[in-house]
Amino acid sequence: xxxxxxxxxxxxxxxxxxxxxxxxxxxxxxxxxxxxxxxxxxxxxxxxxxxxxxxxxxxxxxxxxxxxxxxxxxxxxxxxxxxxxxxxxxxxxxxxxxxxxxxxxxxxxxxxxxxxxxxxxxxxxxxxxxxxxxxxxxxxxxxxxxxxxxxxxxxxxxxxxxxxxxxxxxxxxxxxxxxxxxxxxxxxxxxxxxxxxxxxxxxxxxxxxxxxxxxxxxxxxxxxxxxxxxxxxxxxxxxxxxxxxxxxxxxxxxxxxxxxxxxxxxxxxxxxxxxxxxxxxxxxxxxx
Length: 288
What we know:
single chain, alpha/beta, 23% strand, 41% helix, Rossmann fold, four-stranded antiparallel β-sheet, six-stranded mixed β-sheet, globular
């Protein structure tokens, strides 16, 4: 009997409240609970997709996990360590192990910096040496994400949206993370480019074995990349399950509503997913 492996990430009873200031002369201040008693786990090498409409609390949850903002209450454990107890060198190590790919590649990349400086910035922050030098290291990462390494001296505005997002992915890879939080990482891209970036993310995960917390509202995107799915509504998780279970036999009425709003899963993406899964099985058979 196989023993259950400890998850890489465990979020327990997360709550995040924001102060709300009332308008007008007699407006009253209050508290908005954006995340309300949220719990989930992400295993080693798996992808948990956090799904919901705008305002559901999924992006706030992502920011909590990456420690970009602090929780009101609840705990986050990463690799057995309580995240909000980390400081000093331990916090620096956490920043390396958990990286974020943001929704808008242009706003998340400094327009005044070259690609080389952007990609190596996490290493500079960690005060870590750059293997082989900045240019060679950046070039190797650019090749891995499908970009021309000769363009490492260019600026973000000189790239298309899909290319700019690949730069953001290269930056996340620079410190060899164990978890990548992808916060609506493909939603700002054209449909054809979305499929390319999703395939890239899947390939990199196959090669490196890291985990994803994948934030999205597009269920067609989620079906292509998720191992498991957690559905959020009104700051709470209303359903969690394996991808095929959630898509094939949803239990919660809100999940059913989300699925009903999707006319059909994009056939070209479904075909790409089948090809990727076939290739993965062939690799596993060859290695066994």
